[in-house]
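Recall that a protein's primary structure is simply its ordered list of amino acids. Everything else, from secondary elements to tertiary packing, is in principle encoded there. The following example makes that idea concrete.
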Amino acid sequence: MKTLLTHLTLVLAVSVTACGSESSAASGEARGNPAADAAAAANALPPAALAAWESFARGQCRDQGERFAAVRLAPLAGRGHAVDLVEQHFAGGKGGFVSADFNADGRPDFVVTTPGHGCVGDGPAYGDQGPPVDFIVSVAGGYQAFDGFMDWISPTMIARRGDRDVLDLPIGVNGRCGPVTTVAWGWTGDGVDAVERRNDSGQLVDREGCAVSAQSHVNEGGGGSFPPIEPGYWAEDASCLDAIRDALEIPLDQSGLAYFDAQRGWAGRFEVVRYTALGGNRYRMHGRHHTEVGTEPAQMDILVDSRTSFTEQGEFARRYTHCPTSQIPASIRREFEQ
């Protein structure tokens, strides 16, 4: 959450010496033929992959109150700058895709970029942060599309990690301990999310640019049991509209908008790194609280009321309500999701 980290970095620069200067599943799923998919992937999306993405894109447009229009997708090729490659595709009236193998099943997966999911509306499809990027991953019997991020991509961003691929996205963020220069997006077992971060020396770091070991990095995100709630954005003791308005007008760490998924979470200055099931619909969020002079261990116990509602237990007893991702402005999503 860059706004929070930037805010804390500025304060730390004055008060202390810092140790150094960082998805939701789609509705569409379609079946496919593995052999045919692999053969066709170099030039066009397999029919099942395209069907899964179009189902997802139609849902995005519907949530925004806009009409979906089919998008012609062609492979992104070349080693040019990501902005140039993508804009050339858009200028030609088509979106782009890159092939990869994110879940190591031997079948092609895809990263797709379009001006705006094919949604036909009055406003611009995207801003300075870049166009929407989605993932299409092979699943048992077909494909499923997943929401990604907003930025520019190129084929050179696909990198191998062991037996599978990730997408190394350059970001350039300064955390409490130092820079975070790349975020690797990859398969988590049930979706696509940020799976690792590195600094300008290639060292593994956390969201604040603090060095972590390979083992602790793997264990940090998504540890334990994620509560049975919708991943994504949540309003704290407020309506979604009010929480979003706050997030646009004041620093995110002071707003009533929070974010939780299986890998991480943010609620004000509380950063969630793992979850524990306590029984009886009760869960504990483990993490750290960020202050002007550093961080300290923290936790938050919650009682899950439904997939779209939970209550923070204890002295404050705050109520959280889920907010659909389609309602969240791109500028806010970029801060939380990278």
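The chain has seven helices and 22 strands. The longest helix spans residues 47-63.
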